[in-house]
Amino acid sequence: MKTENFEFVRDFLRLRAGIVLEEAKVYLVQARLGPVVRRLGLDSIDTLIEELRRSPEEELHREVLEAMVTTETSFFRDVHPFETLKSVIIPRLIRARREIRELYFWSAACASGQEIHSLAMLLRENFPELQGWKLMLLASDVSQEMLDRTKQGLYSQLEVNRGVPTRLLVRYFNREGLSWRLDESIRDMVDVRKLNLIEALPYLPKMDIIFLRNVLIYFDMETRRAIIDKISRHLKKDGCLFVGGAETMIGLNDTLTRERISNTSVYRLAGGSGA
Ligand SMILES: C[S@@+](CC[C@H](N)C(=O)[O-])C[C@H]1O[C@@H](n2cnc3c(N)ncnc32)[C@H](O)[C@@H]1O
Question: Quick check: pTM over 0.90?
């Protein structure tokens, strides 16, 4: 692959999604764009990139972006955050919101929806008292392909094996050929929206829980800072922000403080109280 074409892909990803690709990642571009080259019947990655440079066609730009994003995820990823939500955070929130009976959750880089669907199952399974409450579960991502997968709720055997306990598999999934379809009653709890975290966000209600997990790692410091600043303005004053286990916000934002709840780290607005 020509150096200038690799540089073009790097700039393209940074401009389109804020994603930083290290110089050593030529192999990654080759591995991810290879299938696009074959699907379009082109003869090489260089031809694809030259096409991309020439063509204003949005569909091609979208296809390249989607091929390049890392969408690794799993049901109940890291386990502890979900246990802490179940045993401490959601019970507290239910007490704090018992008058208004509304709760707002947002998975801000949802990939194929396994994070938000884990939360939906957790709520349905453990909090029958939420029946009749207004619940908003928002799932957003920059990738339309991932949003379509979230809406469809169709997962492979491997994906369900990786994180769905048998009890939940039996209760909330139906076999469809070699895959498993999440029950409509769970899928219907989730609103899916295309949101690019590096762009201005539309009006959204303030959230009780925001998942911003395993996405900050793809951005440079300045972009991380800008995204956290933006996201924290969508958090209720007693809400909780979850980032990935390997991610830290030290030095990135003054308005958030890290708090250890049970065995999970969450971020909350400094001076926030309550739940
Ligand atoms: C590794 S997945 C993380 C999924 C899930 N949050 C988890 O922790 O399992 C990262 C997701 O971030 C999305 N993403 C990357 N850049 C983004 C951006 N600028 N705005 C919104 N989503 C983005 C990717 O499309 C991908 O689905």
Answer: yes
